[in-house]
Amino acid sequence: MTPERLGLLWGITVFSGAAARLVAAFSGLPGVVLLLLSGLLIGRSGLGLVEPLDLGPGLGTIVGLLVSLVLFDGGMNLRLPGDTIKATVQRIAVLRLLISLGGGLLAAHWLAGLSWSVAAVFSAIVLATGPTVVTPLVRQIRLAAPLGDVLEAEGLLLEPIGAVLALLLLELVLGNLHGWRELAIGLLSRLGGGVLFGAGVGWLLSEVLRRLKPEQSSGLPLQLSLGMLFLMYGVSEWLLPESALPASVAAGIVVGRRPGFYTAEFERLIQELAQLSITMLFPLLAADVSWAELSPLGWGGILCVLTLMFVVRPIGVGVATIGLPLDLQQRLFLGWLAPRGIVTASVASLFSIRLEQAGILGAGRLQGLVFLTILMTVGLQGLTAQPLARMLGLIQQDSEPGEEESAEAALKAG
Question: Which residue, 89, 75, 79, is CA-closest to 253?
Answer without folding.
Answer: 75
